[in-house]
Amino acid sequence: MHWIFPRHSRGKRLWQSLDHNRTMFYAECSSDAALGPVSESEDSFADQGEITIKSRNDKTMESIPISVEGYEMVKRELANLKKERPAVIQAIKEAREEGDLSENAGYDAARERQGMLEAKITYIESRIPRFNIIDMNTLGGERVSFGATVEIEDVDTGDVKRYLLLGPDETAYCKGSISILSPVGRALLGKEIGDEAVVDAPRGKIHYEVLSIEFHGPAIEL
Domain Transcription elongation factor GreA/GreB N-terminal spans what residues (predicted)? Predict the structure, then answer.
């Protein structure tokens, strides 16, 4: 696990409302959200310094960016999943005691839950050693990078959107955020105000102009 503390502090409030011609944006980040699976492929990201770590056998592994707060949320989720283990084991035991397992719906449901629980625990535990933990209080700059709140306009439609760029393991905790590994996130990384980002979408290429780039500090409320 590797900690990153980039650049200088730019502490501003995250809660923003745009004027009536623009999309309203509220980054609703809460500890009550659940950790979901990652849909984006994992790879490196721009302008964040060192992004690789070494495993015990000295093989380089791809690292995963995450905020300090996001890291705490993942650890909390993992702890909650592990706390659920005894109840699932007990449910399996009780279902077994009912007799014939071939037509025991309770047993099947408990075993299925156990499989899902263990798979999620294994998944999270495999990712934690690869985390690059980033202090959101120290982010800043003129280019889009991890932790930036970016306002973009669809060049063709004029629609304006506002996104907070976070790591793939923490966007489930923060409404209004997107992963830096998502198609839009990838396209925006490294861009400056006035630049155009092109996103490949099912309906064709979408061209976005970057209107603003801001860094507001921590986004997830623990």
Answer: 64-133
Residue 7: per-residue pLDDT: 38
Question: Which of helix, strand or coil describes residue 105?
Answer: helix
Residue with tokens 């993942």: 74
3-state secondary structure of 178: strand
Q: 114: exposed, middle or buried (C-beta count within 10 Å: 0-12, 13-18, 19+)? A: middle
Confidence grade of residue 59 (pLDDT, cut at 50, 70, 90): very low
Of 110, 134, 158, the position where a domain reaches its end is: 134
Residue 34: band (very low, low, confident or very high) from pLDDT cuts 50, 70, 90: very low
Sequence-ordered list of residues with C-beta below 8 angstroms from that of 111, at least 6 positions apart, any chain: 92
Say yes or no: 124 and 152 in one domain: no
Exposure string over 37-56, b if 16+ CB within 10 A, otherwise e:
ebeeebeebeebeebebeee
Report the amino acid identity of residue 103. E
Total domain count for the chain? 2
Residues 81 and 147 in one domain: no
197 lies in which domain range?
136-214
Q: Which pTM value belongs to this model?
A: 0.70
